[in-house]
Design goal:
Distance between the termini: 53 Å
Structural class: alpha/beta
Helix content: 40-55%
Oligomer: single chain
Strand content: 5-15%
Mean pLDDT: 94
Radius of gyration: 19 Å
CATH topology of the largest domain: Beta-carbonic Anhydrase, Chain A
Number of helices: 10
Order of helices and strands: HHEHEHEHHHHHHEE
Strand order of the largest sheet: 2-1-3-4-5
Number of domains: 2
Bound molecules: zinc ion
CATH superfamily of the largest domain: Carbonic anhydrase
Low-confidence stretches: none
């Protein structure tokens, strides 16, 4: 329990520093938020989304889950996308994965798994099977793992582009771009997977 009082002490120091350095900023957040994009990322504690993008509170709307999955049958993720696109009117949705993702790694494990995590990761397991031949051409298990992390992000961007919520936005002529990024722990850098989609014309089967 010693850890929790430290959190509150940290919080007080942070709030005092923000109030001192940017008077009016925190009270402004009481009134509204104006995030520029929706971030769909992994729950991993090593990916501090705002910090690595240099953004302040109010500038990024976020949804996080294990292995950064976009699933049409996940009401949590769908509600976040609906609010971001229809109410906040964000113009960009970023799916940001990361290398050495434990969720992706678990989906590569051939030993039988149970519980909610096994069900949640089933699409990643399917993707691994589907991409089996291309992954087999890589030299090491670590390379296969990291490539599957990338392929998983690309797959989620495709899933986003097929969502009724997203198609409706494009049908109405509103700008909305989808992007796939990767984050690398050891350099702290983001990488663009060049898989961006800005309209229905870009989503024809490849
Ligand atoms: Zn992860």
């Amino acid at each position: 329990m010693r850890y929790l009082p430290e959190i509150f002490a940290n919080n007080r120091r942070w709030a005092e520093a923000v109030r001192r350095e940017r008077p009016g900023y925190l009270p402004g957040l009481n009134v509204s938020q104006n995030p520029r994009f929706l971030w769909i990322g992994c729950s991993d504690s090593r990916v501090p989304a705002n910090e690595i993008c240099g953004l302040q509170p109010g500038e990024m709307f976020k949804h996080r889950n294990v292995a950064n999955l976009v699933r049409e049958n996940d009401p949590n993720c769908q509600a976040v996308i609906q609010y971001a696109v229809h109410t906040l009117k964000v113009r960009h949705i970023v799916v940001c994965g990361h290398y050495h993702c434990g969720g992706v790694r678990a989906a590569m494990d051939d030993t039988p798994q149970d519980g909610p995590l096994a069900g949640w990761l089933a699409p990643v397991r399917d993707l691994r099977q589907h991409e089996g031949s291309s992954l087999a051409g890589l030299d090491s298990e670590e390379q296969r793992w990291n490539r599957l992390c990338e392929l998983n992000v690309i797959e989620q961007v495709r899933s986003l582009a097929a969502l009724p919520l997203v198609r409706q936005t494009w049908d109405e002529g509103r700008p909305l771009s989808l992007h796939g990024w990767m984050y690398e722990f050891h350099t702290g850098l983001l990488h663009d997977l060049d898989t961006s989609i800005s309209g229905p014309q870009a989503t024809a089967p490849s």
